[in-house]
Amino acid sequence: MSNELSFHLEIYDGPLDLLLGLITKNKVDIYDIPIAMILDQYLEYLDMMREMDMEIAGEFIVMAADLMLIKSRMLLPKPQIEGEEEEDPRAVLARALIEYKRAKEASVYLQDQYSIYAGRIAKEPEVLDTRSDLPEHIDIDLLSRAMQRALIKNSRLPELARESEKAIRRLLAAKVVHVSAKIIAVMKYLRQNGRSNFEDILLTAKSRSELIAIFSATLELLKVQRVIMENEDDTVYLTLSLTHLREVMYNGQEGAYTDN
Predict the structure, then answer these.
(1) CATH class of 140-258
(2) What integer pLDDT is reported at residue 124 of this predicted model?
C-alpha cells in the first residue's frame, strides 16, 4: 500500500488540524499513531506548500520538529528501570489531538446553533406590577356612600327591569359607555371647575351605565394618583393632581358598560 497522499492540497487551520486530517484519512488509532508514516505525509504536505509558494506558518515547522523528536525517541532502546514505566512518547501529542478534536466538534455544533439563533433578539423578562389595589390613603367606603347618595338623588336614572326578557332587550339596545371616555370627562370637569364634590360629578350621568363608568373612571384616576381625594364631613372632594394639571388625555385600562 502506498503512503502517498491521496488528496489535493487542503487548507488546514494549524498543525493539529493537519495531523488530525492525516490520522482520519489513514484510519489509525489516535492513541497508537504510526509516527513514521504520519511524519512522512506531514513533511510531504509541507513540501507541496513550498512548491505552491504558500507561506508556511512557524507552528507547522515546530510540529514537524516535535514529530521528528517523537520518532527518534521511539527508535531508541527503552531503559529498564525496575518499578517505573516510561510514558509513551506519543502520549502528549495524543492528548493534544483529543482536546483539539473535541474543540473542533464543539465549533461545528456552535456554528449550527448560530445559524439557527443568530437572527433572534433575546429580551430580559420584565417584572410587571400586577397590583390593582388603590393607594392606602383612599377610603373606598366614602366613594361607595357618595355613589349611593347620587343614586337616591337622581330620579332620572331608569330602574332595572325585573323581567329577564325585557332586561336582555334593553341591554342589546343600550348605548355603550367606555370607561376611558369618562376618565377624560372627569379630568376635563376638574380642569374646568377645580376642586369638586364627587357627588356633583356623579350626577352629570344620564344613565346608570354612565354613572358606573364615571365611578370606575374615578377609581382609575385615584389609583394612578392623577386625582387627589379629600374628605370633609363624609363628603368627598376631588382635585386634579398638581403633577398632571396639564394633561388631558389618559390611556387607562379600557373598559365598557352598557345601559341597563
Answers:
(1) mainly alpha
(2) 77
